[in-house]
């Protein structure tokens, strides 16, 4: 394992009691993830689970005409591969790397065995499942009720939270696909935010200049997601 990458940077792994972390840590393998890499295709067996380090993974629903819709966004606060612990074993949607960095990979069977012990890991991942379900619901509300600018701000803030870096390497094409809008709409919105000195935007790269300003422009969905995430994560605190 590369010592420059610590599992404690993933909030789920960091929340585990020491005894449970020590059981699973020998099975954690750090893997580099590249932009656009597909971790799971839809309707495929999940043989490994990923705990992102400073990468961001989009859970995407892809229709027959290749129209994509992002239904989840996961960074260092979460994990990829929930069907493993829920009994489904198969990925219903595609999981694609949105921001490149790395993740800690563990065999799906090993994680399931730890989950079935019924200890802290089980409680933690069930709470995280609730977080993910609420995120999916809130994203659906956001897409139907809020302007592209507000949704764009929400998306940027969630990515920023997940990677902890002001500089985000994101292509215009990818952002348009994740938001379900035209590329021209992404360009127009990014330029508007740039004129307000909230971001600096150039081809393939966005730099967050004024996070507080983005938080004032974002819809309430972002704040609701953060509040509920923090509330549920507080319930997962365990005595060491």
Automatic annotation (TrEMBL):
Annotated GO MF terms: DNA binding
Residue stretches spanning the membrane: none
Residue ranges constituting the HTH crp-type domain according to the UniProt record: 163-210
Keywords on record: DNA-binding, Transcription, Transcription regulation
Domain Cyclic nucleotide-binding: residue ranges: 12-133
GO biological process: regulation of DNA-templated transcription
Pfam family, one: HTH_Crp_2
Taxonomy, superkingdom: Bacteria
Name assigned to this protein: Crp/Fnr family transcriptional regulator
Originating organism: Crocosphaera chwakensis CCY0110
Organism classification: Bacteria, Bacillati, Cyanobacteriota, Cyanophyceae, Oscillatoriophycideae
């Amino acid at each position: 394992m590369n010592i420059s990458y610590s599992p404690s940077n993933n909030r789920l792994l960091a929340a585990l009691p020491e005894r449970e972390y020590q059981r699973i840590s020998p099975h954690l393998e750090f893997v580099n993830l590249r932009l656009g890499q597909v971790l799971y295709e839809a309707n495929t067996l999940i043989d490994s689970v990923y705990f992102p380090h400073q990468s961001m993974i989009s859970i995407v629903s892809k229709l027959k005409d290749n129209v994509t819709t992002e239904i989840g966004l996961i960074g260092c606060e979460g994990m990829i591969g929930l069907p493993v612990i829920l009994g489904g074993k198969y990925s219903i949607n595609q999981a694609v790397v949105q921001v490149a960095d790395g993740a800690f990979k563990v065999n799906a069977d090993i994680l399931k065995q730890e989950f079935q012990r019924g200890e802290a890991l089980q409680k933690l991942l069930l709470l995280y499942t609730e977080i993910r379900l609420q995120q999916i619901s809130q994203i659906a509300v956001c897409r139907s009720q809020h302007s592209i600018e507000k949704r764009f701000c929400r998306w940027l803030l969630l990515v920023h939270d997940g990677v902890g870096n002001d500089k985000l390497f994101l292509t215009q094409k990818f952002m348009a696909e994740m938001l379900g809008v035209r590329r021209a709409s992404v360009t127009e919105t990014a330029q508007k935010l740039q004129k307000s000195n909230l971001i600096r935007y150039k081809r393939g790269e966005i730099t967050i200049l004024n996070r507080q300003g983005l938080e004032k422009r974002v819809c309430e969905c972002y704040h609701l997601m953060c509040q509920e995430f923090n509330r549920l994560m507080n319930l997962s605190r365990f005595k060491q």
